[in-house]
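Propose amino acids for all 206 sites.
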C-alpha cells in the first residue's frame, strides 16, 4: 500500500493531467456548438422538477469555456425565484453567494482579473444566501465530471468549501446540479474524501 503522502501526490498529478486534457477538449469546442449545447441544457433546466420547486437558487456567471447560464438566470427572475451568484475571494478558497436583484443587475458587476463578473469587494449591500434562508439549489460549474457525480474543479476548492458551510446552515445542504458540455464527461474523475459529489449532472446525452 502506498504511503498517504505518495498517494496524495499521485492523485494531484492525475487531477493536473486530466485538467490539461479537458482544457484541450474545451478549446476545440467552437462557439456555435457551445451555444447549441447551452441552449439545450437551458431547456432541460427549466423543465427540471428540482428547479421548478426551488425558490432560492445559486448559479455561476459563465466564463467562455463553460455552459452559458444567461437564459437560465433570466428564467429564474421570470419565475419569481431568488437568484444568488458567486463572489470569489482571490488567494483563498472562500466564496460567498450574493443576491442578484435582476438579470440586468449583471451589467453593474465588476470584471475581475480572472475575467469573471462578480460583485465588487466593497459591495456590502447584497444579501448573502447563508445569512438568511440558505439555498434550495446550486448550479455547479467545473472542468470535468464522471457519471458517479464526481467533479473536477479548477483546483481552488471554492465550491467544496461553500458546500461545507451550507451543511452547517439550518436549511441544510442544497441540491446540486452540474451543467456540462458532453465533452466534459469523463470515464473517471480522481477525487479525495474532501471532494463533495454532485447530486446530478446535466449534459446533452443524459
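Proposal:
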Amino acid at each position: 500500500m502506498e504511503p498517504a503522502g505518495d498517494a496524495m501526490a499521485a492523485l494531484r498529478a492525475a487531477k493536473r493531467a486530466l485538467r490539461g486534457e479537458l482544457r484541450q477538449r474545451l478549446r476545440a469546442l467552437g462557439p456555435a456548438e457551445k451555444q447549441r449545447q447551452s441552449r439545450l441544457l437551458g431547456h432541460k433546466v427549466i423543465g427540471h422538477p428540482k428547479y421548478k420547486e426551488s425558490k432560492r437558487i445559486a448559479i455561476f456567471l459563465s466564463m467562455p469555456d463553460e455552459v452559458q447560464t444567461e437564459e437560465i438566470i433570466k428564467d429564474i427572475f421570470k419565475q419569481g425565484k431568488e437568484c444568488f451568484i458567486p463572489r470569489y475571494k482571490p488567494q483563498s478558497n472562500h466564496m460567498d453567494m450574493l443576491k442578484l436583484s435582476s438579470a440586468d443587475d449583471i451589467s453593474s458587476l465588476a470584471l475581475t482579473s480572472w475575467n469573471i463578473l462578480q460583485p465588487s469587494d466593497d459591495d456590502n449591500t447584497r444579501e448573502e444566501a447563508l445569512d438568511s434562508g440558505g439555498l434550495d439549489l446550486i448550479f455547479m460549474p467545473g472542468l470535468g465530471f464522471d457519471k458517479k457525480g464526481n467533479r473536477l474543479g479548477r483546483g481552488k476548492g471554492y465550491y467544496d468549501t461553500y458546500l461545507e458551510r451550507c451543511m452547517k446552515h439550518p436549511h441544510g445542504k442544497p441540491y446540486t446540479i452540474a451543467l456540462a458540455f458532453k465533452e466534459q464527461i469523463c470515464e473517471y474523475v480522481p477525487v479525495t474524501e474532501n471532494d463533495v459529489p454532485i447530486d446530478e449532472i446535466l449534459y446533452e446525452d443524459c
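The chain has five helices and eleven strands. The chain has a mean pLDDT of 91.
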